[in-house]
Amino acid sequence: MSQHICLNDIKPGQHAVVAALRSTGSMRRRLLDIGLIENTEVECLGRSPGGDPSAFLIRGAVIAIRSEDCGNILIHAS
Q1: 72: number of Cβ within 10 Å
Q2: Cβ-proximal residues to 33 (8 Å cutoff; 6+ apart), any chain
Q3: How far is CA 37 from CA 15, 20, 22, 34, 63, in A?
Q4: Per-chain mean pLDDT for the chain
Q5: Which region holds residue 27: left if phi is over 0, alpha if psi is between -120 and 50, else beta?
Q6: What percent of the chain has a predicted confidence (pLDDT) above 70?
Q7: Quick one: three-class SS letters along the chain?
Q8: What residues contact residue 52 under an 8 Å CB cut-off, 6+ apart?
Q9: In the chain, at which end, N or C, are there fewer CB atoms within 10 A of the end residue's CB?
Q10: Can you tell me the mean pLDDT for 13-36?
């Protein structure tokens, strides 16, 4: 069994697959609405100059996600 890491842990250009969401409430609903469900492939496109937020390619759309929220998205790095 592979160990899960947070979405924060991948660097620009790396790909990952969503393993689970630890978010709750309205933030969980928003993440699910943009397609962050189990087994979704995600690519980190870059980080803002200050490091937060980061841009990810999710199901053909570029989405910016804050570091705080990325910490609640568990992934398998690929």
Answers
A1: 18
A2: none
A3: 15, 7, 11, 9, 14
A4: 92
A5: alpha
A6: 96
A7: CCCCEEHHHCCCCCEEEEEEECCCHHHHHHHHHCCCCCCCEEEEEEECCCCCCEEEEECCEEEEECHHHHCCEEEEEC
A8: 66, 67
A9: N
A10: 94
Looking up tokens 């393993």, which residue turns up? 19
Q: What is the pLDDT of residue 50?
A: 86
Mean pLDDT, range 56-60, rounded to an integer: 96
75/78 Cα distance (integer angstroms) = 9
Q: Give residue 4's pLDDT band: very low, low, confident or very high (50, 70, 90).
A: confident
**What would the mean pLDDT of 46-50 be, rounded to a whole number?**
91
What Cα–Cα distance (Å) separates residue 54 from each residue in 3, 23, 64? Answer: 22, 17, 5
